Amino acid sequence: MNPFQENTLTIDNQVSTQDGQETSVATQTERKVTVTVENDLVSQAKEEEEDMEALLDTLVHASYM
After folding, report:
1. What is the tens place of the pLDDT at every residue in 22-38?
2. What are phi and psi of 62, to 5 degrees?
């Protein structure tokens, strides 16, 4: 899975108004899913950055021994 591709949930979000016209609306569920996926990707990127910093630190210290 490409972590940079957009991950959204497709939901049929047609709502009929009182006058019978259909209007497209963004649902709260779709927004929550998008935010959750974005937060998960940010958390994963932070963890990977911390891992890389720890590895670099280990390599730097090993080179002085």
Report:
1. 555 557 777 788 889 99
2. -65, -30
